[in-house]
What does this fold into?
Amino acid sequence: MPHSLYGLLDRLDAAKIHYSLSRQRPGTVLVSVTVVGQRIEIDVFNDGHMEVSRFVGHEDIEGGAELIDSIIALG
It folds into this structure.
């Protein structure tokens, strides 16, 4: 039986949804997905279970270069 990560990637590929993979913590692979109005983070664990966080918002333009400075200042 294939790992759940591969099943997830196959489903995203079939739906033609772009994603990126990264490692943020040991024992997991982070699948990051961005679709209109949403950013989705899917942590896939060694044992195959998944934890999903979804961030929903508008896509209005909120500012220019000055907004980047204020965001960095908050970091």
Notes: The helical segments are 4-14, 65-74. The chain has one domain: 4-74. The first helix runs from residue 4 to 14. The longest strand covers residues 28-35.
